[in-house]
Amino acid sequence: SRGPAAEPTHALARGPVVPPTRSSEGFLREFLRELQYGQGVTLARSSPNDQYLAMARAVRHYLMADWLETARRRREHPAKMVGYLSAEYLLGRQLDNALLATDMVDIVQEALAECGISLDTMRAQEVEPGLGNGGLGRLAACFIDSLATLDVSCVGYGIRYEYGIFRQTFVDGRQVEVPDTWLSFGNPWEFPHPEREVEVNFGGHTEQYTDEDGRERTRWIPGWNVLGVPYHYMVPGYQNGVVNTLRLWSARATHAFDLQIFNSGDYAEAVRAQTFAENITKVLYPEDSTPQGRELRLQQQYFFVACSLKDYIDQTLPPDFDLKRLPDQIIFQLNDTHPVIAVPELMRLLIDDKGMEWDEAWEITQKCFAYTCHTLLPEALEVWPVELVGRLLPRHLEIIYGINERFLEQVREAFPGDELRVRRMSIVQDHPFRAVRMAHLATVAGAKVNGVAELHSQLLRDKLLPDFAQMYPDKFTNVTNGVTPRRFVRQANPALSELISEAVGPGWERDLSRLSGLESFAEDPEFREQFRQAKQANKERLRALLLVRDGVELPEGHLLDVMVKRLHEYKRQSLKLLHVVTLYESIRSGEVAAEDVTPRTVIFGAKAAPGYHMAKETIALINAVAKTINADPAVKGRLAVAFPANYNVTLAETLIPAADLSEQISLAGMEASGTGNMKFALNGALTVGTDDGANVEIRQLVGDDNFFLFGMSEPEVAALHASGYVPSQVYADNPRLKRVIDLIASGAFTDGDPGRVSAFVDDLLYNDRFMALADYQSYIDVQERIDAAYADTEAWTRSAILNVARAGFFSSDRSMHDYLDRIWGAGIRL
Ligand code: BZD
User: Fold this and answer.
1) What integer pLDDT is reported at residue 512 of this predicted model?
2) Are strands 224-236 and 190-192 parallel, antiparallel or unpaired?
3) Are residues 140 and 45 in the same domain?
4) Which terminus of the chain is more solvent-facing, meaning fewer CB atoms within 10 Å of its CB: N or C?
5) What DSSP character marks residue 508?
6) Is 478 in the pocket of ligand 1 (CB under 6 A)?
7) What is the DSSP letter of 473?
8) Residue 830 covered by a domain
9) Residue 258 pLDDT
């Protein structure tokens, strides 16, 4: 039951939630109260962490009335809701986001100044919640931001990992992972709700029984269970009075475990059980593209979707709700296949718990889910061994078989006699081992299936799931990704934001199409000068940060060439490295005079999955090359390489606004979309990129003159594959490339030790799965054009401004409108 036992008698207790006064004095009062009564310290004795926690809580007060009011409004006017199911949310720091959403920066700055505290010091205290690997997790964070800003009813469901993505350090240039202890100094942004805990079952077996009406039924007798405790996070819209909720689940041992302690007297054994339960949400898996099929990961996936469905059905819907109407109330968006086990879970709830018949349950289920695919790499598609699913979730395996049986009947009906097709499409594969193909399950169950950029959605239909596209042509659609302009322009780039506001007026943060108003300013020399000054200010801010953060001294006046993203062979950091070594070699060999070279600093940022050997070798080689080049007086002032460790959202916010050149150089047909590419364009960097993912759309919008395209197109890549690609031949035929690879192979960057580079070199020469060598010459050529283009300052600035003016499409607000139009359908109110 909720609410007080008796009607309150005092007016204060009856009244609405009163937000604190919006003034620096009002904030000061909240801050000091939190410091003294919350933290239990005086200002004089408080540490920066005390101050940060107190001020974060004080900021939170200004969102609370809106949060409660948004929840009340959504309860009283029930519109269809989006349940965003994602195993990852790469949120980034919360403080600035909250200050911006409440428009409190100036007020807070003034109040803190009265205490002798700098806002920047407070900002630096926060450890970002790194509950994601990369693009997929960051996309989820952008989407919930946009849904709040658009006042769409949405709950984000996910996992509260105790340890997020590892902190990357370098030891002798090699990546060493350190646990991310983001919770160790306290987390002022979350609200635990232990009273809303739910039970989640695992293991055991199923049995048949006959119910009172004589119907044959199945029940699941679980072997063990854990509790899920929800932690709520505020998701504020941008200065619009809306605050949605992100609900992250944390695993606890059940009370049954406590009882075992009591009964068995074996305390140590009982504590082990406790630890076992809590392991489920202990750590984020750092693999971003090669799922390892680990039992704990399937436990995580089932844990969070079981918690979320149960929470929604039992706690969010009214008690007497008729579940036939479920599709009118909610659409669960599946962020990749990670939450797909929710499909058999909903079937189980409807059939076993609510007594529905299969066909009715399936009709409902198919309307409640939609699936977003984020990859094109076949090895990234999740499959779960049947043995494992059967052991962990025996009832779900039966339901999956039931879904598959009926589905394959339909395939046979639609394509009689085509047993090969039946085997290709089956949700359960036999080879190379019996396993559940989660993407097939998602595609069969989902009302819609979408890719994340036009090209990706096309390739999804043509190459990854062609049989399904043939069978269900109307299921497939595209929604091109987007990024939130609040965090990635307004917050990350105040200098540019001010310029934009002066030029096109206020409000562009919520309607990014207004950036088109900048178009004419590209022709205005005075505006161009101001634009350059903003870029310069951002470069200086980056210089200052890297100096204290990494002890790195960036040279001044260089073209800033930035490649930041997860380390993966398909993204081709190796190709960028070949370019760096090419520049170096051409100066060293005297082929070009140092003074004729456009001064350039190349910045890398990338984490490698801890078990991904080649990716870690690449990191070591980048660091080795950087060390050699930065120490060589022959290239001093002309070429520098920096690789700050632990690239994350926080670093991105300073790095991206400072960049001149954005590296988006994946092999065409491999990068589903990319979202960093959008952030760079919106911050006035020019892109050097292949015709891949959302690069295609960026180029179409900003225009060929303002984008540096190179490399093979996807059809060309396919043709080269088909005709047989021999990288060693490319090497043999290109003297420049040969010199570069030979230099690396000689050990010139590894203290004369060729052994440390042989894995890298051999792979390029004899494997090169992602065809870096095939695109090498084209890449070198385009980089030469870039050097020349950068020398023409006015033309470069003009192009940079046009990138900003024409990139408004890449707001995640637009992505959300597209999901509403193409996937979520009517009934979701704006
Ligand atoms: O998703 C990325 C794609 O590689 C990008 O092209 C795309 O822009 C973004 C957003 O759609 N995919 C991921 O980031 N994938 C993962 O992080 C991931 C994590 C766990 C398991 C598998 C993949």
Assistant:
1) 98
2) antiparallel
3) no
4) N
5) G
6) no
7) G
8) no
9) 60
Report the predicted TM-score, pTM, of the whole model to 2 decimal places.
0.98
CATH classification at residue 704: 3.40.50.2000
Contact 17, 65 (CB under 8 A): yes
Q: Which amino acid is at 27?
A: F
Torsion of CA 422, 425, 430, 431, to 10 degrees: 110
Question: ipTM of this complex > 0.85?
Answer: yes
Integer Cα distance of 219 and 575 in angstroms: 56
Verify whether ligand 1 is closer than 6 Å to residue 695 (CB atom): no
Residue at 626 is within a domain: yes
Q: What is the pLDDT of residue 684?
A: 98
Q: Could you tell which of 288, 376, 454, 484 is best to mutate to test the pocket of ligand 1, judged by most ligand atoms within 8 Å of the CB?
A: 288
Atom of ligand 1 nearest to the CA of 138: 10
Among residues 167, 348, 566, 607, the one annotated as catalytic is 566
Beta bridge partners of 253: 226
| 525: number of Cβ within 10 Å | 10
How far are the Cα atoms of 251, 262, 499 from residue 268, in angstroms, in the given order? 20, 12, 63
Position in ligand 1 atom list of the atom nearest CA 694 = 8
Q: Are residues 600 and 508 in the same domain?
A: yes
Q: Which amino acid is at 581?
A: V
* Bridge partner residues of 171 (DSSP): 174
Q: Please tell me whether residue 1 adopts helix, strand or coil conformation.
A: coil
pLDDT of amino acid 259 = 59
Residues in the chain with pLDDT values less than 70: 1, 256-264, 829-830
My answer on whether 601 and 736 are in the same domain is yes
The atom of ligand 1 lying closest to the CA of 338 is 21
Which domain, by its residues, includes 222? 78-93+128-480+818-824
Residue 672 Cβ contacting ligand 1 at under 6 Å: yes
